[in-house]
Specification:
Blueprint lengths: L1 H4 L5 E5 L9 E3 L14 E5 L1 E2 L3 H5 L8 E2 L3 H11 L2 E2 L17 E2 L1 H11 L3 H6 L1 H4 L12 H18 L27 E3 L16 E3 L13 E3 L3 H4 L2 E2 L2 E2 H7 L8 H27 L7
Parallel strand pairs: 6-7
Antiparallel strand pairs: 1-2, 1-3, 4-5, 8-9, 9-10, 11-12
Helix pairs in contact: 4-7, 7-10
Length: 289
């Protein structure tokens, strides 16, 4: 965990075994031991390793940070792709560029791994194995596929760190003024087609209510509108994200920043679902070519 505190870093959280749906998540921070799953211990895999002062003083570690990939592993990757390893990498979360030299940085490899582990077919194909051990990373010899997956992985990482430009705007609406308090028994989701509590007309878009709608008292429940069912149902680890975020704040008053943040979460999940489908579509077959 010290490597996450010693300098700028990026890491993958994963569980070695799980009683819930298997998942991973990117982070830039130290984590709690059950940050990813309800019941299972989370492990963290930093992209960079930082030396201690004693390691530098005793000559056991270079002064600079080092990528957290074994030499055997990155040599295998470069050998398959006929690429050149560039260990200093890039700090920015950007898709890698295409060039004739085909340089491979630690960030490229991190993003490639992140994309592969988010492929729905990977998760279904290896579901039983993923419940009992850390994920194994399938490698490719196809340069174009590597670049495509690394680019998709970079987009996913930016989304999950809530840094993606797409999160600047959201289609989620919060139209009803009120006290902004998440009431007991809420949040409550109404899917498209369910009757509007006030008018009885079928809803055209999903809503997440945080308070009751009492038409006889002229009280309109407050809600977030424009949330598709697949986003409402989306889980990370054992957590239903859109539901849990609000439940954790039950009884509290949502601030303006909270309301804006919830919209960014919904948008990030929508984009995640889109990118996962694109990753699957980009992979021609298993095992990877």
């Amino acid at each position: 965990m010290r490597h996450m505190m010693a300098g700028k870093n990026l890491a993958i959280m994963a569980t070695r075994q799980t009683r819930d749906d298997w998942d991973i998540l990117a982070t830039q921070h130290i984590i709690a031991h059950k940050a990813l799953a309800v019941y299972d211990i989370s492990s963290i895999f930093p992209l960079w390793r930082y030396p201690t002062e004693q390691e530098v003083r005793e000559g056991l570690f270079p002064q600079e940070r080092q990528p957290n990939f074994s030499k055997t592993f990155w040599q295998d990757v470069c050998g398959r792709l006929n690429g050149q390893w560039v260990p200093d990498g890039r700090l920015e979360h950007k898709p890698p560029s295409l060039d004739d030299s085909f340089e491979i940085t630690p960030e490229d490899l991190f993003h490639y791994i992140y994309a592969v582990l988010h492929a729905p077919t990977y998760r279904s194909r290896y579901a039983e194995f993923l419940r009992i051990d850390f994920p194994h990373v399938p490698l490719t010899s196809d340069r174009a596929l590597f670049r495509t997956l690394a680019a998709k992985g970079a987009e996913l990482v930016a989304l999950h760190l809530l840094e993606a430009p797409a999160l600047a705007t959201s289609t989620v609406q919060y139209p009803i003024p009120g006290e902004d308090v998440i009431e007991k028994g809420h949040p409550r989701y109404l899917a498209p087609g369910d009757p509007d509590p006030t008018t009885g007309e079928p809803l055209t878009a999903g809503r997440v209510y945080i308070s009751r709608d009492l038409p006889r008292r002229g009280q309109h429940g407050q809600y977030f509108a424009g949330i598709p069912p697949e986003v409402w149902e989306f889980h990370v680890g054992g957590y239903q994200v859109c539901d849990k975020w609000l439940k954790d704040r039950r009884g509290r008053t949502l601030t303006f920043d909270d309301i804006e943040h919830y919209g960014r979460i919904v948008t990030a999940l929508q984009e995640t679902i889109r990118l996962m489908a694109e990753i699957d579509a980009a992979i021609p077959a298993w095992p990877l070519p």
